[in-house]
Backbone:
């Protein structure tokens, strides 16, 4: 028997139609509200971002920092339509300095440091109510920078290359550099004028310049410029490239003949060479350049320091020449190194000494090169025979024992320079050629005067014979033309014989192209010659007086 079992699967479900509708209605309302808030928030962000970046402001030139006296242009880009569809306003630090202009460009006059700040522009559409703000641009205006010039090396060997470097501080873009060689101003001993170096007429983009084959002492400067119109920095200070080699056309002599001197010691510095307008110059340890008239006594081409000598580089200069340089150091200690003022020629010998302030040589001493102890110091001297380039370096001496009353027994260092024998030979050849040239010139002048004298005598003798033998009327006529109104020849006047003979030469046929009579030519020239002779004699009398 089978029994049927009924399983009831129906579960009573409460009537939720009303509450469900309410819940759905509430959720929809909350969703609308949420989307509305989010939409408004997003729209606000978009609108704000749009106002901040709808327009675009940029500055030309785009350099940072700008410098005083430079000109700047502000450009406002509406980024829609034509530029002429908008009016433009520009502000600095939220304060408008121009409003509703029709041009999207604003050109400033020369800027000053007070023009630094944050700049912004606003574009207003001319027809529809559309306002667009730009980004903000920070502008910094500084004073025109000063330049720092460096030279490397400052004491090159003859013929070496030297690099000039001109640094703008603070670093900035767009500069072109102008390189100059200094020329002394005779009217002002503390100033120099400048001559542009080759390739520097329009400036160089590189901030360095290479000098090839430097042989003599010379001063250099630099200047920088940028923009349109160009603004220039002040000139840099003068930096010198030193040469210890003797220049035959200009040389400095130091007495006592050494590079190191005691404080309170008097120095004598003399200039020799192809000039009569020498001046002794000094660049002290701080780089300040001055002439002997500021710190010594000038006697023609010699400068005496008395007891006011200071450490520095000394040299001679004129308007066209610069001598060798001497790096002289003044010491307050008790010991100095005695070394050569001029470079030593390769193959020659040199002796270094160690000197006490008490005028005595210090005998029990050691010598050092580049802080390395050297052997063979004998009785206070170091002999370097057959020197080579390897002997170049910084030398100093030190006493082994301390004499009574002396505390500082170590000298300062001095550089020993060795020059190529070819350089010395070329200097000697220059001197020889100079002397030979002068002697040859004097001899040529003497020979020329002797020749002219013999020529005048022979000419006068021939003219006299011609006058005695030729009695024709034509000859008499020509002879009488050479006579003054009183019947005497003008050649009898002192100094006029050559002038008269020159006029006589004009009687040759090549003067036939002149339609004027020969007497007229002669008289005109004779009158002019007489006038010139009068001026000449008058000038001689003044000179004798």
Residues:
């Amino acid at each position: 028997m089978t029994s049927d079992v009924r399983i009831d699967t129906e579960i009573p479900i409460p009537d939720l139609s009303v509450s469900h509708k309410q819940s759905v209605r509430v959720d929809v309302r909350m969703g609308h509200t949420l989307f509305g808030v989010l939409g408004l928030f997003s729209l606000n962000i978009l609108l704000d971002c749009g106002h901040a970046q709808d327009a675009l402001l940029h500055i030309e030139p785009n350099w940072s920092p700008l410098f005083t006296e430079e000109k700047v242009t502000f450009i406002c880009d509406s980024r829609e339509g034509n530029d002429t569809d908008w009016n433009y306003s520009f502000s600095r630090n939220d304060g408008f300095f121009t409003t509703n202009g029709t041009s999207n460009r604003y050109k400033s006059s020369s800027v000053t440091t007070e023009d630094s700040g944050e700049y912004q522009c606003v574009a207003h559409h001319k027809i529809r109510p559309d306002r667009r703000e730009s980004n903000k641009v920070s502008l910094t205006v500084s004073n025109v920078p000063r330049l720092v010039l460096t030279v490397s090396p400052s004491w090159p060997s003859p013929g070496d290359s030297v690099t000039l470097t001109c640094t703008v501080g603070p670093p900035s873009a767009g500069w072109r550099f102008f390189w100059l060689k200094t020329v002394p101003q005779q009217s002002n001993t503390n100033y120099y004028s400048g001559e542009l170096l080759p390739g520097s007429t329009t400036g160089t983009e590189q901030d360095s310049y290479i000098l090839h084959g430097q042989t003599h002492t010379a001063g250099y400067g630099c200047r920088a410029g940028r923009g349109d119109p160009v603004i220039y920095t002040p000139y840099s200070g003068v930096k010198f490239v030193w040469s210890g080699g003797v220049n035959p056309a200009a040389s400095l002599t130091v007495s006592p003949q050494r590079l190191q001197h005691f404080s309170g010691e008097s120095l004598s510095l003399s200039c020799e060479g192809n000039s009569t307008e020498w001046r002794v110059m000094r660049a002290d340890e701080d780089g300040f350049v001055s002439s002997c008239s500021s710190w010594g006594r000038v006697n023609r081409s010699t400068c005496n320091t008395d007891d006011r000598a200071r450490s520095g580089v000394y040299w001679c200069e004129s308007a066209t020449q610069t001598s060798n340089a001497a790096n002289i150091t003044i010491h307050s200690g008790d010991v100095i190194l005695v070394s050569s003022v001029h470079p030593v020629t390769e193959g020659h010998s040199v002796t270094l000494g160690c000197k006490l302030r008490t005028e005595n040589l210090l005998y029990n001493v050691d010598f050092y090169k580049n802080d390395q102890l050297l052997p063979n110091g004998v009785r206070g001297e170091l002999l370097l025979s057959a020197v080579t380039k390897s002997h170049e370096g910084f030398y100093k001496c030190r006493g082994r024992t301390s004499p009574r009353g002396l505390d500082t027994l170590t000298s300062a260092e001095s550089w020993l320079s060795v020059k190529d024998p070819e350089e010395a030979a070329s200097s000697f050849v220059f001197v020889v050629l100079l002397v030979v040239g002068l002697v040859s010139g004097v001899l040529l002048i003497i020979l020329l005067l002797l020749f002219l004298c013999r020529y005048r005598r022979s000419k006068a003798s021939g003219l006299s014979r011609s006058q005695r033998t030729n009695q024709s009327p034509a000859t008499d006529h020509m002879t009488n033309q050479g006579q003054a109104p009183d019947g005497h020849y003008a050649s009898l006047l002192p100094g006029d014989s050559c002038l008269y003979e020159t006029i006589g030469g004009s009687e040759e046929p090549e003067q036939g192209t002149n339609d004027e009579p020969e007497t007229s030519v002669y008289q005109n020239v004779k009158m002019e010659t007489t006038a010139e002779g009068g001026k000449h004699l008058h000038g001689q009398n003044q000179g004798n007086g």
Remarks:
- The longest strand covers residues 322-331.
- The chain has a mean pLDDT of 75.
- The CA atoms of residues 109 and 281 lie 44 Å apart.
